[in-house]
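Fold it.
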Amino acid sequence: MLQPYASPLERAWHYGLRGLVGIVLVFLILPILVIVPLSFNADTFLMYPMAGFSMRWYEEIFTSGQWQLAMMNSLIVSPLSTLLAMVLGTLAAIGLVRTDFPGKALLTAVLISPMVVPVVIVGVAVYIFFAPLGLTGSYTGLVIAHAVLGVPFVVTTVTATLQGFDFNLVRAASSLGANPVVAFFKVTLPLVAPGIISGGLFAFATSFDEVVVTLFLASPEQTTLPRQMFSGIRENISPAIAAVATILILLSTLMLVTLEGLRRRNERIRGKRA
């Protein structure tokens, strides 16, 4: 915040830095926003100036068999993989925070490695591992692979939430007769829920947007929205892709708003405990 007694040089630096940040934000956001008007283009080409306004491309993605199949597959795979990632990631984070053992740092690095390892390498590795098991070309294999990509986000957010967690509350619940399962659902889960939900949202976004691993594992019957978009870009660029991209932008914006709400809720909870 700029103080009233700031010197002219400090004021110039303050406003100059704000202007630079604004330019960077416009540079990053403008290419995303440019695609939104094109989704309402009446013409069949992704170009400006637009020929006119039309909802035909939104109608196409909701009536076309290919887009309907892709949307249905995404709505099957992403929630299931997110749920699996939330369960596994939460249990892993609690185990890592509550216990100390040899190789803990190595295990943590392995758990979050799908976040940093190139997705192509993950796709090749998963395909080689799943092929002998008959999991390629199946929903089961696709859900497990997407869950593996989502687990690091859940582990990271839940671990961060648990850093300020008072485990004496769990001990108090146990002293009052609650078994570990009851103590987890009554005490631990409500307090770490913001971290779990935040990690779940990141896992869902990762799964819903994933295309590389899907190319390795999915059969034509398991085509997801990103894979369908990728195929459309390779074969014939249609404004329907812009319509799908606009929907994904709105979904991402909604997720960011939800994350901000969870962050503020977590701050309020910490403030009350302090």
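Residues 84 and 97 are 20 Å apart (CA to CA).
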